[in-house]
Amino acid sequence: MQNLTRRIVLTQLGLVTLAYSQQGLYALDLPSKDPSHFRHVSQDDPPWVQLLAQQLQAYFRGEKVKFTCPIDFRDYPPFFRRVLQETQKIAYGAWRSYGWLAAAVQAPGAARAVGQAMARNRTPVVIPCHRVLRSDGTLGGFSGGLSWKERLLALEKAKGGD
User: Fold this and answer.
1) Against a cut of 0.85, is the pTM above it?
2) Model pLDDT, residue 161
């Protein structure tokens, strides 16, 4: 992908790698312990990227965070974009079902398509796809693996919801 700047943010749970464009955050990789060859976020990055780094560090410390960075939604089909934008509204510590999300984007019965949008989310945590579960409250899938989904939900529950 052209015109992306890649950076890393050190959090309590490991290194978060992010990629951004002039439009906003394009991608985010969940923490890993592996070293990265990218530079850390610095004062040379746009103010919103510096704030995002601080918000990610706070989030992975278990603090309640509402991410405010712009998102670069290019390369998503229109339906996925609507689903992801609606997913951004799910509050910290809360969860919604795939079916609920389908209805919220005026596509009742499209729960599987919502699941596909969640699987293609390039910016987990910032667009909190981990907060989308099956209607019975079981996990469903997660692109970062179910252990990460459990970990993120537990992190948020430990500090309480709204």
Assistant:
1) yes
2) 40
Q: Are 65 and 133 in contact (CB under 8 A)?
A: no
List all residues 6 or more positions away from 90 whose beta carbon is below 8 Å from its beta carbon. 96, 128, 131, 132
Look at the block and give the residue holding tokens 């005026």. 106
Map residue 13 onto helix, strand or coil. Answer: coil
What is the arithmetic mean of pLDDT over 126-142?
90
Is 69 catalytic? The answer is no
Is the confidence at residue 3, as pLDDT, over 80? yes
The 10s digit of each residue's pLDDT in 32-42 is 867 678 899 99
Return contacts of 114-121, CB within 8 angstroms, 24+ apart: 114/83, 115/140, 115/141, 116/80, 117/76, 117/79, 117/80, 117/83, 117/84, 117/87, 118/83, 118/87, 118/142, 118/143, 119/143, 120/76, 120/80, 121/84, 121/87
Q: Nearest-CA neighbor of 74 among 24, 124, 8, 18?
A: 24
**What is the sign, positive or negative, of the torsion defined by CA atoms of 4, 54, 35, 123?**
negative
The tokens describing 80, both together, are: 């996925």
Point out the catalytic residue in the list 65, 129, 152, 153: 129
